């Protein structure tokens, strides 16, 4: 279950990096990528939530991912309305997501 969560979140991360290249080139983001990125992230968080029910050490990862998701929803909202996307918020979203995935892999490898 945990390996599938990591794989789902890594696929979401790759999509997020593709979306970021569009944003930093000031191009229109592919909405299908944006929606798929969000959907995969939600699925990954949900599966991790189920796993965390028995392994409480992953609560910090879920907390970081939820905060990251809120930032992602704000960016998506602005993107869909055609408003100015905050690049600082996007960078924060990327950093928090990266921290969460690193912690997730660390806990998987060293906490069992």
Core attributes:
112 residues; mainly alpha
Molecular structure report:
The chain has one domain. Helices cover 83% and strands 0% of the residues. The chain has four helices and no strands. The radius of gyration is 14 Å and the shape is elongated.
State the separation between the terminal residues, measured CA to CA.
Answer: 13 Å
Number of helices: 4
Instruction: Tell me the β content.
Output: under 5%
- Tally the structural domains: 1
Q: Please tell me how large the radius of gyration is.
A: 14 Å
Taking the sheet with the most strands, its summary is: none
Parts with pLDDT < 50 across at least 5 consecutive residues: none
Shape: elongated
Q: pLDDT average, as an integer?
A: 94
Element string (H = helix, E = strand):
HHHH
Structural class: mainly alpha
Helix content: over 70%
Q: How many strands appear in the DSSP assignment? A: 0
How are the SSEs ordered, and which strands pair?
Blueprint: H1 2-24, H2 31-52, H3 59-81, H4 87-111
Tell me briefly what this model is.
The chain contains four helices and no strands. With 112 residues, it is an all-alpha fold.
């Amino acid at each position: 279950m945990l390996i599938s969560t990591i794989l789902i979140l890594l696929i979401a991360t790759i999509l997020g990096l593709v979306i970021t290249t569009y944003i930093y080139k000031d191009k229109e983001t592919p909405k299908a990528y944006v929606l798929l990125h969000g959907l995969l992230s939600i699925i990954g968080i949900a599966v991790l939530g189920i796993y965390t029910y028995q392994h409480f050490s992953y609560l910090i990862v879920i907390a970081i991912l939820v905060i990251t998701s809120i930032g992602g929803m704000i960016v998506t909202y602005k993107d869909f309305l055609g408003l100015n996307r905050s690049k600082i918020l996007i960078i924060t979203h990327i950093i928090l997501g990266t921290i969460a995935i690193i912690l997730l892999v660390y806990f998987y490898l060293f906490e069992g």
